[in-house]
Amino acid sequence: MKITFAYWGNYTIAFISLFQKLGINVIPPEKTNQQSIIEGAKISPEMYCFPLKANIGNYLTAIKKGADTVFMVTSLSGSCRLRYYGIIQDKVLSEAGYKVNFVILNQNFIDIYQKLKKISGASFWQIVKAVYFFFKKLHLIEKLEKKAQYLRPREKIKGQTDQILRETFPQLEKVRNLRELTKLKREIKKKISEIEIDSKKNVPRIGIIGEIFTVTDGAINFGIEEKLGKQDIEVHREMDVTYHLKKIICPWKDWQIQKKINPYLKSTVGGHGRDAIFEMLNYTKNNFDGIIHLLPFGCMPEVVIRPILEKIHQETGIPFLSLSLDEQVAEAGINTRLEAFVDVVKNHYNNKNH
Amino acid sequence: MTIGIPRALIYWKRPDFWQSFFENLGCDVLLSPKTNKEIIEKGVKSADPETCFSFKVFFGHLLWLDEKCDFVFVPCLKTNKEKLEYCPKFFGLPDLAKILTKTPILTETFDERKEKFEKTLKKLGKKLNKSRTEIQEAIKIALLKEKETKEKQKKDFFEKIKSKKPKIVLVSHPYNLYDDYVNLRTKEKLERLGAEVIFIDEIPIDETRNEIYPKFHWEFAKEIMEKVQAILDYDIAGAIEISSFQCGCDAVLKEFVEKEFKSSKIPFLYLIIDEQTGEAGLQTRLEAFIDTLKS
């Protein structure tokens, strides 16, 4: 059995190591690119949301390499279309003539544990160790991403941080045990400390909010964080895997968020709809200079809350840009809009400080 | 006191119920007019460009009612009697309506996972300063009226099914089926082409139905799938599904509805409607579809 799964930004590395540690034969998905997206969109339902099409594209490239089982994590308790991702993807692939097994994992630790145990045949300790290793890697990846957000606008030689990241991630993929991981961590730390930065430099800050997949996957959002960083803007982003997992473990977080956003929205709208409003309110409170809202075209929760985000934008005057991404969006179009937006943000920043 | 009800979206889910409920409470009900070009233009201008067509129509109706009444009634529908969810876009509807209108919004959350439908209605009545007995009476009359129309529908269905003309099932949400302007008079067009049209929600279902795959958590999806299976027992010539552009739920549902009809070898046509759909284009497609039935 050779398994594959959907590509999800840099986190893919952590997922690969989770399955490898369990002794499952993994065919890692290739990085999402324009070609794979087009291939995926060709056989997917036209009206479905964009992440599904991107996922199908990932599966197709892996199936060509010999994968015969697909792992798909869906949320069987949410309100949005993610709930039906597993069955629709299964249907799409089988109608297109691909014979693959589909393992649909619910976002529920007991369900994931049982299914992983059944497939891998690993013992309890093995699974615990694999999951521990997975979290170690995940944590490192998220930490590096956060660090890069701070370094990019401040580095003296432009592009140095991204160069280091590009070298580091393939190395991290090869790391098989904790000892190697600690060693690599030390190396990375050394490399990062060698980057020359101007720590006193004041830079405008932008908060990125929106749907988790489009926000975190650089291959889907055309590396928006990199682009903004190069134009001397510090990017902040709350949404990542840890944030999402924390919310599953602590359901009262939702309740806390609801309390904060009550004047704007009185109920959940599925997905991370409420979180986007909450984050935007937080960013405006912390005196940020701009908000970028990313969503897949027609994403149900994000489309519903967008008028509310626009209302906050009108009330507070914080620059706001909403970008819908799908298979037809071209990088050049995104670049133009970002450039214009960066000008607005810098103006806003300068006016505020003088 | 005048209460405005937009004649779109949620209204069509229980058309008789809401109107008669408020009328029996002693309020005047102002229903927005049937959808027309002006309303759609208003809605398209004010709604988010990526939201579904039905939502745009709803906002058009809402804006028509603005400043013409004391309250606009926009409920927040979450779950129904079977504890199945409504479309997630409905959840935020009152909050979105609040942004657009100057007239205050009358709203209440209908979540039967947490409390019974009647209890929520009582809360709603209290907001209008009505007594307990008044509210109870109003609920009773409204439910009776709704039941009456349902029985009539059932009777009509059995008459329609006896007809000799080719029978075509229209699968869609009530707010697309009953709004003639939105669906571009598809029913009338099909009847003129010599077909007998059956709306999906007219089909009665008996209690004992096999489990459907997949298990939907949307009330309309479960209902439509059950009714699709029920109609397959009768002799029907073809099926047409209408969905509004950017309807997220229909993207899922269509896959399974289509599969159901295709596996029974019944011709299936999928139409997407939006503010730019032209009548001539629709006419051609319907004519072509009817021709395929004859051959």
Keywords:
heterodimer; A: 354 residues; alpha/beta; Rossmann fold; four-stranded parallel sheet; B: 295 residues; 13 helices; 10 strands; 14% strand
Give structural notes.
The complex is a heterodimer of chains A (354) and B (295). Chain A is α/β, with parallel strands linked by helices. A four-stranded parallel beta sheet of chain A has the order 2-1-3-4, sandwiched between helices. In chain A, strands 6-5-7-8 form a four-stranded parallel beta sheet, with helices on both faces. In chain A, helix 6 (124-151) runs antiparallel to helix 7, helix 7 runs antiparallel to helix 8 and helix 13 packs parallel to helix 14. Chain A is globular and about 65 Å long. The N and C termini of chain A lie far apart (63 Å). The mean pLDDT of chain A is 92. Chain A has helices at residues 12-21, 34-43, 50-64, 85-95, 109-120, 124-151, 160-174, 178-193, 212-216, 224-230, 241-249, 252-261, 273-285, 300-316, 331-353; strands at residues 2-5, 25-26, 69-74, 101-106, 205-210, 234-237, 290-296, 320-325. In chain A, 41% of the residues are buried. In chain A, strand 7, helix 14 (300-316) and strand 8 (320-325) form a beta-alpha-beta unit. Chain A folds into two domains: 2-130, Rossmann fold (3-Layer(aba) Sandwich), CATH 3.40.50; 201-353, Rossmann fold (3-Layer(aba) Sandwich). Chain A contains 15 helices and eight strands. With 295 residues, chain B is α/β, with parallel strands linked by helices. Chain B is globular. In chain B, strands 2-1-3-5 form a four-stranded parallel beta sheet. In chain B, strands 8-7-9-10 form a four-stranded parallel beta sheet, with helices on both faces. Chain B has a two-stranded parallel ribbon with strand order 4-6. Chain B has helices at residues 10-13, 15-24, 37-46, 53-65, 88-91, 93-100, 117-127, 132-162, 174-177, 186-192, 219-231, 248-263, 279-294, and strands at 2-5, 28-31, 71-73, 76-79, 105-106, 109-111, 167-171, 196-199, 238-244, 268-273. Chain B is built from 13 helices and ten strands. The relative contact order of chain B is 0.12. Chain B folds into two domains: 2-144, Rossmann fold; 163-294, Rossmann fold (3-Layer(aba) Sandwich), CATH 3.40.50. The interface between A and B is medium-sized, with 33 and 30 residues.
